[in-house]
């Protein structure tokens, strides 16, 4: 039984061990059919060790099993299968991540090295990459920061189940199309684009690379948002003072009308202001008045 995983670096074919790991296999195959993994980042990559993904939040702390869809929050995780014993002896072994107390969810990793025996008896092997070793090599070559977060925006693009031996539970609804990228995915990635020449960062420290990416992202985000057309009741404000808060903006703009929400957009990791914000008014006329008044 196999699943085709299309990533932004290339394709992988994963053979799933249905006989040896029936519960893990069902979980993985049904999540793939639900397109749950589509657009998930490879949020952690350690050279010659693992590439981890399967968390829609991209934080390494999210995700849930297919059984949560079937049985509710109490089934977010399920107990790992540990028999028969399997070992992480070669590149391309696919394992579900142990979330603690031997419980598994949606996150999984693919080994990028050999003889990783310290992963045995902790995480649960359920498959093996049989095609796409060149893609694994590309994953292994990714430049990462000190927390093993890749600088490139590497994601799962699509998952295609080539063979499903399990019946489809009635409660599961499979989408007809892949999910669309969110605004945050398109604009607030804090990543090097796939088509960007990574050699531009050669010879620089991880801190210098991160600072350059931050400066580039701030400029690009402001430019994109200035060109975008927000709803009639939402005001986009840029070139803010770095110390300006949501509360400051609400005080300044509340004189134009009732405000539903003020939000200064911040970097996901550092929480530093990106120096632009959105202000949502209850009445579009208040938004228009604020725009013309503050633009003068």
From TrEMBL:
SMART domains, A to Z: RRM
Localization per Swiss-Prot or TrEMBL: Nucleus
Gene Ontology cellular component terms for the protein in this record: nucleus
Pfam families: Pro_isomerase (PF00160), RRM_1 (PF00076)
Top-level lineage group: Eukaryota
Class in the EC hierarchy, top level: isomerase
Subcellular location, principal: nucleus
Boundaries of every RRM domain copy: 233-296
Substrates-to-products reaction catalysed: [protein]-peptidylproline (omega=180) = [protein]-peptidylproline (omega=0)
Example GO molecular function: RNA binding
Alphabetized SUPFAM superfamilies for the sequence: Cyclophilin-like, RNA-binding domain, RBD
EC number: 5.2.1.8
Classification via InterPro entries: CRIP, Cyclophilin-like_dom_sf, Cyclophilin-type_PPIase_dom, Cyclophilin_PPIL4, Nucleotide-bd_a/b_plait_sf, RBD_domain_sf, RRM_dom
Domain PPIase cyclophilin-type: 6-161
Keyword Hydrolase: no
Keywords, sorted A to Z: Isomerase, Nucleus, RNA-binding, Rotamase
Family: Belongs to the cyclophilin-type PPIase family.
Function field: PPIases accelerate the folding of proteins. It catalyzes the cis-trans isomerization of proline imidic peptide bonds in oligopeptides.
Descriptive protein name: Peptidyl-prolyl cis-trans isomerase
Annotated organism of origin: Nippostrongylus brasiliensis (Rat hookworm)
């Amino acid at each position: 039984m196999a699943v085709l995983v299309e990533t932004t670096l290339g394709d992988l074919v994963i053979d799933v061990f249905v006989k040896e790991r029936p519960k893990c296999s069902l979980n993985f195959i049904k999540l793939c059919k639900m397109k749950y993994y589509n657009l998930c980042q490879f949020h952690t990559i350690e050279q010659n060790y693992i590439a981890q993904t399967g968390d829609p939040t991209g934080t390494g702390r999210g995700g849930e099993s297919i059984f949560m869809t079937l049985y509710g929050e109490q089934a977010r995780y399920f107990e790992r299968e540990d028999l028969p014993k399997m070992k992480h002896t070669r590149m391309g072994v696919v394992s579900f991540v142990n979330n603690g107390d031997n419980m598994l969810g949606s996150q999984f990793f693919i080994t990028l090295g050999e003889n990783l025996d310290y992963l045995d008896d902790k995480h649960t092997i359920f498959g093996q990459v049989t095609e796409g070793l060149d893609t694994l090599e590309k994953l292994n070559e990714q430049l990462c920061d000190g927390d093993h977060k890749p600088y490139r925006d590497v994601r799962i693009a699509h998952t295609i189940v080539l063979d499903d031996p399990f019946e489809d539970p009635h409660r599961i609804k499979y989408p007809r199309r892949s999910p669309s990228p969110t605004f945050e995915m398109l604009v607030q990635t804090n990543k090097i684009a796939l088509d960007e020449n990574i050699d531009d960062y050669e010879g620089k420290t991880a801190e210098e690379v991160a600072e350059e990416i931050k400066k580039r992202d701030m400029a690009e985000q402001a430019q994109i948002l200035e060109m975008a057309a927000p709803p009639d009741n939402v005001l986009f404000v840029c070139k803010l003072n770095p110390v300006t808060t949501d509360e400051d903006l609400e005080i300044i703009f509340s004189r134009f009308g009732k405000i539903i929400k003020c939000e200064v957009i911040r970097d996901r990791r550092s929480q530093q202001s990106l120096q632009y914000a959105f202000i949502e008014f209850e009445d579009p006329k208040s938004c228009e008045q604020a725009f013309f008044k503050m633009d003068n």
